[in-house]
Design a protein that fits this description.
By secondary structure, the chain is of the alpha+beta class. It is built from 16 helices and 14 strands.
Amino acid sequence: MEKTKISSDLKENEAYIRARCENCADILIRPMRLGDSRKIDCLMVYIEVAVSNMMLDDSAIGKMVNHFWEISPEQIQDFMRNNSLGIADVKKFDNMEEAFAALLAGNALFFMDGYDKAMKISSKGYPNMGVSGAETEKVLRGSREGFSDSVKTNSALVRKRLRDTRMKVVETSAGIRSNTMIQILYIEDLVHEELLEKVKERLEEFEIDGILDSGMLEQLTEETWYSPFPQYQTTERPDRAAQELLNGKIVVICDNTPYALILPSSFNGFMESSEDWYHHFEMASFLRILRYLALIMSVLLPGLYLAVIRFHTQILPTNLLLSFAEAREGVPFSSVTELVFLELSFELIREAGVRVPGSLGNAIGIVGGLIVGQAAVSANLVSPIVVMIVALTALGGMVIPNEEFASAFRLLKYLFLFLGGYLGIFGIVLGIYMTVAHLAGLLSFGMPYLLPFVKKEPVKDVGDGILRLPFRKRQFRPLYARREQKLRLRRRK
């Protein structure tokens, strides 16, 4: 597409801008005459809320305009060419497309008669919530800062933790109409070049009218799009993003969303919490084992219960079997229907708790669960043991640190429920085989999803398995980093 050059005639530029910004009430076009004798025509274009009041003394734009009122037209032109005063972050454009991209990003544009370039002056930008706490990745120990909706703020929070120019920030945009800014963060001497190129190619291979959240970006660029397992790891914690950058990974930040994407991702990475490296290794290892046990319980427990009481009652002790039979006495539904009914009821309560605002949502989750469970048992619709099975399954799912990863197992739970209910233990084993086969074939940007469990060349003292090694023994980086940069920790001589 041919780009529209900026004219040296201010009236032509103004006519083009007014035509393009017709019916855009939020974009202000302010003609003015500057210079010591008001001899030169100028034009300022900006989005009303995104740019500071030009007349404010503490505004970079205000300082520039106030200064222009006091100097001659020749000095104004000298400033435009050289920005010798350095009173503002200035960039020049020679075509309207680049100028409008800067304008819509929240900057001001300054045009001057007789000068065939536009000057971008950075300002405060669009309104945002600022830095707030991480909501979905709460920790007992570690930073309380979380990402915000501003891509610039988010990269600054990572830069705050990695004060090294080898950490690079590459900007690009996506969305023909939204022009959403995307930043790719990586550490130059740690990341593999082929991985970086693959990420850039994947981001450029689609064309869409708008990207409004990193979730849209994730779904468009996933290789195995039909898999319920996320192939990007999401985080709203700057310290987690910085830690993964040090491992040789890449972080992608999308404007207007507080979640960063980490890639490549792995099964084990989703099971790690941000605070695992801040606690002592004994407790961190115990919690990791607990999470894996909780994951197995959240997926297999309902299916195993149905398989045992419907097909394999002989493996239960007699007293326990009689207890199960007594609990189910009077229940009019089959065990499969009973369990599906209660699982779906809990899903409804969970969804209602999320949608209802504030503390009322927590109250609905707790009170709704108690009332529905107790009422269903009292009405003989379900047995008490099924209420306990559903509660343990839900608790197991909540222990998984990543919500998106946990959601995949929430869906998988129903597959195992029906396999166990109609095929018994054989169905459970078949389901495990299919799940492991799917995970074994899953790749995240060329890296096996089951790393580090399937790596051919185990690296000693990496510490990226289920057990967390003592920090002083974690001497090497994972496989994601370049081979020549494997060493991360050594004793000073």
